[in-house]
TrEMBL record:
Protein name: Pyridine nucleotide-disulfide oxidoreductase domain-containing protein 1
Phylogenetic classification of the source organism: Eukaryota, Metazoa, Chordata, Craniata, Vertebrata
Repeat listed as a keyword: no
Organism the protein comes from: Cirrhinus molitorella
PANTHER family in UniProt: PYRIDINE NUCLEOTIDE-DISULFIDE OXIDOREDUCTASE DOMAIN-CONTAINING, PYRIDINE NUCLEOTIDE-DISULFIDE OXIDOREDUCTASE DOMAIN-CONTAINING PROTEIN 1
Functional description taken from the UniProt entry: Probable FAD-dependent oxidoreductase; involved in the cellular oxidative stress response. Required for normal sarcomere structure and muscle fiber integrity.
């Protein structure tokens, strides 16, 4: 017989946003019962959290059994079952295992899934969670050529890591890594793609997460609901194709996928191409620039779609253009007492001039943590201000084995022509770019061990007028820290 629970707080999702939210609310409200409902068998916990500077943070992520959380917080219960129904007006939630809940406050942290080029095409793969990464590895081990579509972080890492397989990388922009970089930074990184693996720079320290291989084999109830992977998702997974020696990367710029054919469809098509010249492949990709490539399979890394499906029917959620649950500056959705955090939500407040939402690991943690504080404050009818972490966009990551720090409007987002760029580049070593508007620094890209992050973060936060320094700002012979101390 299904039980009907009356609970103060219910959190949905065992990714970084949900787990951080559940932990925070459980510790802030020790006398209230907290339920964490998740479709995946393991939960993601943040460990070794380190505040690198005012806004930059680093942490490790570990996939752990849910018992770890329950042992740590006596008032926190984890239920491994996907939510299948929400009646927001009634504050009622139903899980696939039949359990039902009446909550006071609910926080949806159900993440996002890859936006696939086409659904249900066996030759198209998306990479999202441990299961899909393992499927990718399996298919890659037999592949001689793959086509990668997309230009975000996942595509960047993927094309860099794959060995022993030819990679055709189709991007719609003029330069690689458009989500994170401008053409200059892309130029700086290209030689790393072309270098032999053994010649590549040594890895630098970066967050990593571990997966429990025994448990990772079981996916969530629907088989598609695992947590998103994160930095170093390819660590411990050998991404090697079927060709003995490295087979190189070929980039097709400014194009998209026109059509993907199965072998049969291709042979039967009326395409004017000399079909025999393209060889025999399981799939063929026709690009908008007219080129056609045969391949073993296609990796679709073209962004994500928020996982909102089970929550929408019968409710009145306001959705953003990207289909995320729109949240206000208290992480509240448009349905009363329903909050959302992480990849599933879209920030609907008027953002600070130096912050933008990006569906990243760090923001999932920050939003989960802040949503919990907002829920607690709202229950206690206490005021709460938008957290300082939303003042300045900041992100530390690693691309092509270089440390990468992104600050503020690092790509001059939303600035139109109204900005100036200063760039310093030492081939194979570092790339530094600052974005200035009205003589004030509003963003920076730091690739390599530049050691400039804290100083630049301060200059961005204090909005000091830097006009009189001009290009001296990036003069490598000047110790910039002394300059401004
Ligand atoms: P998720 O981690 O996706 O967690 C969602 C949770 O909700 C899961 O536990 C899922 O099981 C559960 N769930 C879903 N639906 C339901 C339901 N109906 N009922 C119950 N539970 C449900 N970010 C970075 O910052 N740096 C990187 O280098 C980086 N690399 C990435 C590489 C890959 C391959 C991918 C896929 C993502 C990467 N990201 C990276 C993005 C980062 O992983 C995500 O932004 C972050 O994990 C989002 O966390 P989340 O908690 O919002 O969602």
């Amino acid at each position: 017989m299904a039980s009907d629970k009356q609970v103060t707080f219910v959190i949905v999702g065992g990714g970084i946003a949900g787990v951080t939210c559940a932990e925070q609310i459980a510790s802030q409200c020790p006398s209230d019962e907290v339920y964490l409902l998740t479709a995946s068998p393991l939960v993601k916990t943040v460990t070794n959290f380190k505040q690198v500077s005012k806004t930059l943070e680093e942490f490790d992520v570990e996939e752990q059994p849910s018992s770890v959380l329950e042992e740590k917080y006596p008032n926190l219960k984890v239920v491994q079952s996907a939510v299948k129904l929400l009646q927001a007006k009634e504050h009622y939630l139903q899980a696939e295992n039949g359990q039902t809940f009446h909550y006071k406050k609910l926080c949806i942290c159900s993440g996002a899934r890859p936006k696939l080029l086409t659904q249900e095409n066996p030759h198209v793969l998306g990479i999202r969670d441990t299961d899909s990464a393992q499927e990718f590895q399996k298919r890659l081990s037999k592949a001689k050529r793959i086509v990668v579509i997309g230009n975000g972080g996942i595509a960047l890492e993927l094309v860099y890591e794959v060995e022993g397989c030819e990679v055709i990388w189709a991007i719609k922009d003029k330069a690689i890594g458009n989500t994170f970089f401008d053409a200059g930074a892309a130029q700086f990184l290209i030689p790393s793609l072309e270098a032999d693996k053994k010649d590549r720079s040594l890895p630098c320290k970066r967050s990593r997460y571990t997966t429990d291989k025994t448990a990772a084999g079981h996916s969530g109830a629907s088989g598609e609901l695992g947590s998103a992977l994160g930095p170093d998702w390819h660590e411990g997974i050998e991404l090697r194709g079927a060709v003995q020696n490295s087979s190189g990367i070929h980039i097709e710029y400014e194009c998209e996928v026109e059509k993907i054919y199965t072998q049969q469809e291709f042979l039967e098509s009326k395409l004017s191409t000399k079909k025999s010249e393209l060889g025999v492949w399981p799939a063929y990709v026709q690009l908008t620039n007219g080129k056609i490539y045969g391949c073993d399979f296609v990796v679709s890394a073209t962004g994500v779609v928020p996982n909102t499906d089970p929550f929408l029917s019968g409710n009145n959620f306001e959705l953003a253009e990207d289909h995320g649950l729109k949240v206000d500056d208290h992480m509240r959705t448009s349905e009363q007492d329903v909050y959302a955090a992480g990849d599933v939500c879209t920030a609907g407040w008027e953002p600070s001039a130096l912050w933008q939402q990006m569906r990243l690991w760090t923001q999932a943690r920050q939003m989960g943590w802040y949503a919990a504080r907002c829920m607690a404050a709202d229950v206690l009818e206490e005021p709460i201000e938008l957290d300082f972490c939303f003042e300045l966009f900041s992100h530390i990551t690693k691309f092509f084995n270089y440390k990468v720090v992104l600050l503020g409007k690092f790509n001059a987002q939303g600035l139109g022509q109204d900005h100036e760029l200063l760039v310093r580049c030492t081939k194979g070593q570092e790339y530094v770019k600052v974005v200035l508007t009205g003589g004030r620094m509003v963003g920076a890209v730091l690739i390599g061990d530049t050691d400039l992050e804290e100083t630049f973060e301060n200059l961005i936060l204090n909005q000091m007028d830097l006009s009189r320094y001009g290009e001296e700002l990036l003069n490598p012979n000047i110790d910039i820290e002394d300059y401004f101390d």
